[in-house]
Amino acid sequence: MLEVSNLDVYHGSSKTLQGMSLTVEKGEVLCLLGRNGAGKTTTLRAIMGFAKTGAGSIRLDGTEISALPAHERPRLGIGYVPQGRRLFSELTVRENLEIGMTTRRSPPRVLDETLALFPRLQERLGQVSGTLSGGEQQMLATARALCLDPKVILLDEPTEGLMPSMIATIRDVVLTLRNQGKAILLVEQRVEAVLSIADRVCFVENGKAQAVMPVEALRADPSLLSRYVGVG
Ligand SMILES: Nc1ncnc2c1ncn2[C@@H]1O[C@H](COP(=O)(O)OP(=O)(O)OP(=O)(O)O)[C@@H](O)[C@H]1O
């Protein structure tokens, strides 16, 4: 579904991704794990077209997309929920979702299906999004990406700063989406969350995927965490 091969990314003259490679298939959750500054967010931003790429390729269903401008990529079916949510805080919940709908001219059923996943947002459609709680804002950012009816969803630390009940809601939504056949690429630092949600784990170090494995391998050998992430 999504395939990144040997991708380089530059910030000025420094190379922040150095031959990054990963694949995410339909109906699976791939989790990126790594130390601060390893290149996880840059990987997601590069897929969305927000980073200056050099050598390498990004393919969606076999089609090369790395030369496409950023605004064209969501229309191909890639939803992105950035770190920090980036909502239009002056607009209402409904207006934020409508922006997602119009980006890809999604049929109205997509909005209904999305709201069915987030009853809390359904109750707050008229509320200005800047007044939502942190957890509700995360739900809205995720729901807005889902309004594109994406095949692939990129989520950057969606549970950061949330209370346990909200974390559980986000996890349940991610697992529902996976079971619907979406391909999900997730940056997640909390090990318990990774173990409960990932199918495969990709350890990122120095702008590169150093190791990729099924989540069971991480469960069986927690020393991998100290090796690649410096915890555990
Ligand atoms: N706009 C930028 N200008 C210069 N350097 C950048 C820029 N964005 C990222 N970098 C650098 O690229 C490297 C990778 O950063 P990135 O945000 O991808 O790391 P990360 O793995 O997501 O880390 P964290 O867990 O801290 O969010 C870091 O060294 C960072 O300082």
From TrEMBL:
GO terms for molecular function: ATP binding; ATP hydrolysis activity; branched-chain amino acid transmembrane transporter activity. The keyword Transport applies. Residues 2-231 form the ABC transporter domain. SUPFAM superfamilies: P-loop containing nucleoside triphosphate hydrolases. It holds the Pfam family ABC_tran. Gene3D superfamilies: P-loop containing nucleotide triphosphate hydrolases. PANTHER family: ABC TRANSPORTER ATP-BINDING PROTEIN (PTHR43820:SF2), HIGH-AFFINITY BRANCHED-CHAIN AMINO ACID TRANSPORT ATP-BINDING PROTEIN LIVF (PTHR43820). This is Branched-chain amino acid transport system ATP-binding protein.
